[in-house]
Amino acid sequence: MAGVLPHRPNTNSTSTSGSIASRTHTHHRHTSLSSFPSGSQDGATTYSHHPTISAPSSAQSYASLRDAQQQQLPARNPRRRQKTVKSQYPPDSAEKHVEYILVASFDIDRGSVMEHQYPGPVGGDEHMLAELMLPDGAHVRAQDWTIFFLHKDGAVEEEGEGMESKKKRGRRKSGDGEDSKDDEESEDEADQTDGPPLVYVLNLVNMKQDKTVKRGAVVKAMAICTRHSFLHIYKPLLLLALQQYFANPVMETLASLYEAVNSMDLSLMPRLSFHERSILQSSEAKDLFLEKFEAIIAQRMASANPQQDTAAATSPHRSRFGLPRDTHSFETIVHYTSVPVPIKIPVALSPETVGDFSLVKLITTFSHPHPFSPTHPHLTTNGPLTHPIIVLINALLTQKRIIFLGHNLPSSDVAEAVLGACALASGGLLRGFTRHAFPYTDLTKIDDLLKVPGFIAGVTNPNFANKTEWWDLLCDISTGKMRISGRIEQAPLTEGVLFFQQNNGAAGGGGHMNPGGGISGIVAAGASLSAGLGGGGAVPHGNMAGDVTGDNAFMQNVLQAINERHGENAVRAKFRRWVYKFTRLAAAFEECVYGATSLHIQHARTNTSPKVGVDSPLVESPGLSRTTLPPEVTGHGYVWPSPQAKNQELAANATRIEGWRNTRSYYNFIQDLAAYYTTRPVKDLDLHHLHDKLAKLRLTPDTSAHIYLAICSAVQTDAEISQLLATIVSGSSVDHVGSQPQGLFTLALGLFHPKVEVREATAGLLGRVREHDAGRHFWMGLGRFVRIGFERVVAGREVREEGG
After folding, report:
1. At a CB cut-off of 8 Å and minimum separation 6, what does 236 contact?
2. Three-state secondary-structure class, residue 628
3. How far lies 122's CA from each of 28, 34, 150, 498, in Å?
4. pLDDT by residue (tens digit) across 575-605?
């Protein structure tokens, strides 16, 4: 039914398009100076720090504008119980935002020297740390930035985790009901790392001319060591502090900076669930989840004044605390040397997202295709003319050794490229890239670097380009070109590749495969095909027939978005959907070749009755009553329009998936799926599979009725609605070139279904979505035609019920 009606773009929508971030809290630990990963890769926790000062108020002019905008949204149901909103950084935490502040300088006789460490020594090799703080060429630039990571000591970390786990269990035991459950779920979401936590180091290098010293210049560097992955917020403070240190090079200068940054108050930043973060990251609405900011402010005011009732606490006339102008970031102020420094912290962070890199800049740098020689089955997925960005993603997914070279460029440029590449392949879903990334390194550390499998490193020394045995893929930022090493390890011929090679030959399905690049040519030519991840549901045809993988169409879509200035968030959302689709294709590939997959978990529900929502304005339809789910509802995985399209796309994916199946990110993803399943609200249905069926396939009225009724039955609570909305924004149908996000349009087509029980059940679901904090914005994205249909169904049901 859903496939019959044409797609109607939203005319007044809140932009939505689709992924994961998390943070938890721990106590102080000692740091290992090594900037390379430790041998232990057991699970650990990612940590953050929490200060204790109140946030500044926003301007009242904005409050009046915000109130006017809020009046356009559907009214919230006052009967809905407001849950307790938890802070990402509780005010009672003893954690520090910044653990260490370091100062290094270059001495003409001794080389790189560590001058000060505050509040105490970091430990380890101070000379190596000083060398990292003073990159090559620091003496020829007035200013430069570098980023590097320090890895925690595993033994100390395990002891710390045991103490923290006891604290968490105590907090959960002291809690009650749903709030306690929410705490446990959010903590479980965050306890997903592939090793001890990283300490992120942001380093500023300044060179000042001084004719009274040797070489006529003084070079000093100041670094902040923090557990915050959004370490770029400290840049303005470092600029001020290093200037202060040049004027007054004493320990008190570091102490004043340390006290200022650790007084920063983030306690009014609400904690979001995984699905809420996905929704926020995929939307441009500046007031999305504003209700959570209001609630946490009301809780703070109520705790400060227990005599004040909730209504007074939520009054728009409050003056002590202010609401953010844009809920994507939390605004606060740090006072340093009598200077108020405004700080903006991202509210929804994804794993592998470190610093303020730009994917747009990275893609633009390598935007021009050029021939690759040699080729490699895991990398050149469209033959020698594969787009460089696709080659980079393939190298990251298949855990190749990657070097970004920026000869005669600031070290900050190569560091940003490394961090951007990690986020590019992660998509907020996959882990294991940042932990093995080295935003800046040099020749003195090459022996340690080569011990790390699948590293991503940034360098400025051109000698790396000549050592092809050190790397598999070299990305030259200066020229915008990439090189595949002639000494790269060749890909083995795996069972999955043979499976599709044999099936493809037997079915004569090679008509869409470019010469020398198909599965049948892997052994002879060393070329391959990979995933058609441009966002569509089928292999391209017509004038795109030469682009079997869909990679060219995808990059055309991305470059078009950049040229039209869609912005950084829109580009990141495209790659999130790219990676998400890749993981779904990998799950289907494993089921097809090996008979089972660990990339999908679903509880088969039988002999069960649906839940009835008590908060919905509409009572559930009798048509939802059932004892067994029909077969068209119990399916899972990616949806193709035909078996032939499925076979072609999986064949095109074969080598890239096989290369990914033996990597860190693959095994981390399996662990994350298992942890996510325990907190997933809807466990017995694959909502993405069902939504894709409605959006992509031409279904009979009976089949579409079963799907609509199953979704309406399963999605009742706020958490389940959030999961549904996150499913919608991560859908692949929004990535066709020139397409618009569909939002709730596919589900809203149920309002016009031939069966009355489907229409009424859909109206009930949309009614619940309209009351949801984020769902209200999705509702506003529906056109007038759909809203009139909704009102007609509601009115018709009321008339029918009144008539008996």
Report:
1. 341
2. strand
3. 13, 11, 10, 52
4. 999 999 999 999 999 999 999 999 998 765 5
194/37 Cα distance (integer angstroms):
11
C-beta neighbour count of 36 within 10 angstroms: 17
- Nearest 5°: the CA angle 32, 35, 38 is 65
> In terms of Cα–Cα distance, which of 279, 303, 355, 403 is closest to 16?
279
Q: Which two tokens stand for residue 15?
A: 């932009």
Residue that the structure tokens 């529900």 belong to:
605
DSSP 8-state code for residue 465: G
Going from the C-alpha of 213 to that of each of 140, 142, 210, 369, the distances in angstroms are 16, 17, 6, 49
* Phi, psi dihedral angles at 675 (to 5 degrees): -70, -40
| Sign of the alpha-carbon dihedral angle for 247, 264, 434, 386 | negative
Name the packing angle between helices 718-729 and 274-281 (round to 10°): 40
Instruction: Report the SS3 class of residue 277.
Output: helix
Written as one letter, the residue type at 681 is P
Residue 483 pLDDT: 96
Question: Of 282, 174, 41, which is closest to residue 777 (Cα–Cα)?
Answer: 282
- 606: Cα separation from own chain's centroid: 34
**What would the pLDDT profile of 102-120 be if each residue is shown by its tens digit?**
999 988 778 889 999 999 9
Q: In three state form, how does the secondary structure of 744-793 look? A: CHHHHHHHHCCCHHHHHHHHHHHHHHHHCCCHHHHHHCCCHHHHHHHHHH
Lookup: tokens for 342 = 């405004």
Q: pTM of the entire structure?
A: 0.82
DSSP annotation of 238: H
The DSSP element (H or E) to which 693 belongs, if any, is: helix 687-696
Closest CA to 646 of 476, 774, 531, 799: 531
Least Cα distance to 225 among 332, 131, 148, 128 occurs for: 148
What do you get for the CA distance between the two ends of the chain, in Å?
Answer: 30
